[in-house]
Design a protein that fits this description.
With about 350 residues, this protein is of the alpha/beta class. The protein is built from 12 helices and 10 strands. Helix 11 links the parallel strand 9 (about 265) and strand 10. The protein starts with a helix and ends in a 15-residue tail after the last helix.
């Protein structure tokens, strides 16, 4: 992985410094780029809050060969980790690759590691369609995430995704006033429960599960669940949507308590290792999403780099599960945190 990070550092230095510790300090305010919004406080909060959760070591048990496999919506994955959606990578990183090239890396790398791939959205619906065309039959392992477009923009993308064979889709509801979009004139808006329900209903009519990403409070988690969401992602867009937002790991327990029995709760923000993943699971997440390290691994070594990163996360997760006495994901609970 050190060689992969080194290669990426040379290729994307205009948008990401590929720091030894991806904590949001050196890239604060880098938008375009991979930094957090404004002071970078939200990005830094995500990272710090995860680091402040401590594990309780337990080694007197029989969990010698943990199983971190996950079944979600009838699909089996190698671990409770997804590649988080990224849009407009060329604009943010100014590297020597295209959005479609990165899309290919994520598809191949995720498949090799046995995890679900996702893809982000852009104002250009033709680019969104090109992602689906490029994926072809691999759309069965692809979950496209769209923005909360005004008018029929979201529904049009849903129909394209369903036609391409995607069974899971989602929406970054926290993109309603994203700094990266404000200057483009993109027609995004905040969605109330009624508008969100209409989009989710259409997704269900098309035979797709729908994930609402960008939930940071119990009350909004309830709105999403009542609108019919199959999953909610506790997320502050990697600290890129709102400066001075609290950490996602801090918001996770209340969201899980509010809707965990009604829909799948996921989390992203600051996750870098299998240890981070286990902490999120202990606080109520069913699965997690990882963004920046996946993107950096792709920039450093393509699909092979992404697969290598995911496998490194899985190896770490299995080791930490054994060291905390968790034979499988069902055994993970708050008792492993101290």
């Amino acid at each position: 992985m050190r060689e992969i990070w080194k290669s990426a550092r040379e290729r994307i230095k205009g948008g990401c410094k590929v720091c030894p510790e991806c904590n949001g300090v050196a890239c604060a305010g880098w938008i375009p780029g991979m930094g957090g919004a404004g002071t970078g406080s939200s990005f830094k909060n995500n990272f710090k809050a995860l680091a402040q959760r401590h594990l309780v070591m337990r080694v007197l048990h029989d969990a010698n060969n943990p199983d971190c496999g996950l079944e979600l919506w009838g699909r089996k994955f190698s671990m409770p980790v997804l590649a988080a959606p990224v849009g407009s990578i060329v604009w943010h990183l100014k590297g020597e690759f295209s959005d479609n090239a990165y899309m290919e890396q994520v598809l191949e790398g995720s498949a090799a590691a046995g995890v679900l791939a996702t893809v982000g959205d852009t104002p250009d619906i033709d680019l969104f369609k090109s992602y689906l065309d490029q994926a072809g039959p691999r759309c069965s392992n692809l979950a496209p995430f769209m923005k909360p477009w005004a008018g029929d923009g979201a529904v049009r993308r849903l129909e394209l995704a369903a036609r391409a064979g995607c069974g899971i889709c989602g929406m970054d509801v926290d993109s309603c006033s994203l700094p990266a979009l404000r200057g483009t004139g993109a027609a995004v808006e905040s969605l109330n429960g009624r508008k969100l329900a209409a989009v989710i209903d259409r997704a269900h009519q098309l035979g797709m599960k729908f994930i609402v990403k960008g939930v940071m409070s119990a009350d909004e988690a309830v709105i999403a669940a009542e609108a019919g969401a199959d999953g909610v992602v506790v997320s502050n867009h990697g600290g890129r949507a709102l400066d001075h937002s609290r950490a996602t790991i801090d918001a996770l327990p209340e969201v899980a308590a509010a809707v965990g029995a009604r829909c799948v709760v996921l989390m992203d923000g600051g996750l870098r290792t299998g240890t981070d993943v286990l902490k999120a699971l202990a606080l109520g997440a069913k699965a997690t999403l990882i963004c920046r390290p996946v993107m950096i691994a792709g920039c450093g070594a393509g699909a092979e780099g992404i697969a290598k990163f995911f496998n490194t996360v899985r190896e770490d997760l299995l080791q930490v599960m054994q060291m905390t006495g968790c034979a499988n994901l069902a055994a993970v609970s708050g008792r492993i945190l101290g």
